[in-house]
Design a protein that fits this description.
573 residues; alpha/beta; Rossmann fold; seven-stranded mixed sheet; six-stranded parallel sheet; 20 strands
């Protein structure tokens, strides 16, 4: 077992001088350290900790006067960079301190014997927690939105490559006065939202950089902190557009606790459209959820759609979409998309998404995220469940330790979800919109009754996953898209059936109760066929079946569909 020690001192000249003289490794050994006061913390690493402490004193970090230096006889530079990244992420996710670090290149790099070192990291965490530096345990932090949506997440190699190429192109465009449109495409779990949040923080940090600030040469984005780049961003106005209300609020909460970011940087598409001042850059998460001209969620929104069109373009042209608003209100745009997560007819038409992707590809501004971050199954699981719900059936397979199981009794699946909730937290029931939302008007009523189970839809549409009642409720697509669960119990409702004679999936329109999900568009003269509705419903289940990081359990209402899916989903044991 690796032994480490935590050395404590005060960030002032005499204390640092005495400490530096106590051990030659204080001037020539890789260490990780924290600087903190009652409300803020900075995490760093150095091969010459004594010199680095003096640099911090000279650069005005004396307000963070409590120093903890983590020394280990077996530490090397790679292990220290990894521990530094680990502690930054967990301090940010814990929320006790405001993390003062810049976000200049935290990546998930491998190195020799990394697994052994990471066992030490957990012990370092516990030692710091015993000293009151953390307010929560590791599992509690990992399950929190502050951790999941943190701008300090470690990037995968394909994410880091995309971010670097995007920055390189953006700065070149700024120097030459050119507009740009970039698209990042990825399946569920590849970290599109993480890239968007990371970019927001990184651009903020570059903009606020001063020449006297220390820049880590090991940072993969260090060059963008050099003289010239920050000047290009001095008056740079940037916003993150998040179409889904619940996810937008969760990200706003994270931004409110992150230096350099503010909650008003996270916007709805309506806020962008009505803004009197255009943006230099808009990053649009879940861009496939932007809307075309269709009946909105309320009469107020319908009027607002018209007003924005007239404000931006001079007339209310039915062909205009919220994608056009983004283009009109910004010089540069970055769209994060997965067309297979379009779940309502009002979403952008497939033709517009195809055109957007094609144009970005022609301009060499299309980036594909491949590494699966959410699911402990690898990338194949997403493709497997998507094809499982189409006429192009996959070859049956298993996914190792990932718990993928089909239940014949909903009571059993509910019991399993509650068991996992006690063990891991964030285990939830979710379902297609196959039952009316009766409890919205009558809180005592039940919405879903199956196999003796009486269940209600989500009692809130804001941050439902973390609400106290959520473990006893059922979440819809509109409460879970963009979120992670540890375990998802997916109820496939009677709106999706299977015809064994025709060997095809069939939609039962009468059992689909999302009014906006099946509404025709008389304004554009569009009547949605059952085949088109089927595509949206299949997309919905594709999203629901890819929420669970550790496992997914499935219950199917239609007997024929349940029989068909037995080929692809192992039975619950």
């Amino acid at each position: 077992m690796t032994s480490f020690r935590i050395e404590r001192l005060t960030l002032e000249n005499e204390s640092v001088k005495v400490w530096a003289a106590g051990d030659p490794r204080h001037r020539n050994w890789p260490v990780v350290y924290t600087l903190s006061n009652d409300s803020s913390i900075y995490v760093g690493e150095s091969l010459n900790a004594a010199t680095r402490m003096n640099q911090h004193i000279a650069n005005g970090r004396g307000a963070l006067n409590a120093v903890r230096v983590i020394v280990d006889d077996r530490f090397n530079k790679s292990a220290c960079l990894d521990l530094e990244s680990y502690l930054i992420r967990f301090f940010a996710g814990d929320g006790k301190f405001t993390v003062e670090n810049r976000n200049e290149g935290i990546t998930d790099a491998d190195y020799y014997d990394r697994g052994h070192y990471q066992q030490t990291f957990d012990r370092v965490f516990e030692a710091l927690r015993r000293e009151g530096m953390f307010s929560q345990t590791i599992p509690q932090i990992v399950n929190s939105d502050l951790f999941k949506l943190s701008p300090f997440k470690a990037l995968t190699q394909d994410q880091a490559g995309a971010v670097n190429d995007i920055l390189e192109g953006l700065f070149e465009d700024l120097e030459n006065g050119r507009p740009s449109t970039t698209v990042i495409q990825g399946d569920p779990g590849t970290g599109k939202t993480i890239v968007a949040i990371y970019l927001m923080k990184l651009l903020s940090d570059i903009r606020s950089h001063h020449n006297e600030d220390v820049v880590e040469s090991d940072s993969i984005f260090a060059e963008y902190f050099l003289e010239g780049y920050p000047d290009l961003l001095r008056d740079f106005r940037v916003g993150l557009v998040v179409p889904q209300q619940s996810l937008r609020q969760s990200i706003q909460n994270v931004f409110a606790k992150t230096p350099g970011l503010t909650k008003d940087m996270v916007l709805s598409q309506f806020e962008v459209g009505s803004s009197k001042t255009p943006y230099d850059l808009l990053i649009v998460d879940e861009a496939h959820r932007l809307s075309q001209r269709a009946n909105q969620s309320s009469g107020v929104r319908n009027k607002e759609f018209q007003t924005i069109n007239e404000h931006l373009f001079g007339s209310d042209d039915d062909a205009l979409t919220q994608l056009d608003w983004i283009g009109k209100q910004s010089t540069h745009q970055i769209f994060l998309v997965d067309a297979a997560q379009s779940v309502r007819p009002a979403d952008l038409p497939r033709a517009r998404m195809t055109s957007l992707l094609s144009e970005a590809k022609d301009d060499h501004r299309l980036y594909r995220l491949m590494t699966q971050m959410r699911l402990n199954t690898g990338e194949d699981y997403v493709a497997y469940v998507r094809s499982m719900l189409t006429d192009s059936a996959p070859q049956p397979r298993r996914f190792g330790e990932y718990e993928f199981a089909l239940y014949d009794d909903l009571t059993d699946m509910l019991g399993k979800i509650r068991e996992k909730e006690r063990e891991f937290n964030l285990a939830r029931l979710v379902a297609g919109y196959a039952w009316p939302w009766v409890s919205k008007k009558n809180p005592k009523a039940y919405d879903i009754e199956i196999d003796g189970c009486q269940l209600r839809w989500n009692s809130t549409d804001r941050d439902w996953i973390n609400s106290p009642k959520s473990v006893n409720e059922v979440g819809s697509i509109h409460t879970v898209q963009g979120y992670d669960l540890n375990y998802a119990g997916v109820i496939i409702g009677p709106e999706l059936t299977y015809d064994p004679a025709m060997q095809r999936f069939v939609v039962d329109r009468s059992n689909y109760h999302d009014k906006k999900g099946k509404e025709n568009n008389p304004r554009l003269g569009i009547v949605y066929s059952d085949e088109q509705l089927l595509e949206y419903i299949v997309n919905i289940y594709g999203v629901l079946l890819t929420r669970g990081m550790r496992g997914t359990y499935v219950y199917v209402c239609d007997p024929a569909l349940r029989s068909y899916l037995r080929r692809f989903i192992p039975p619950a044991i």
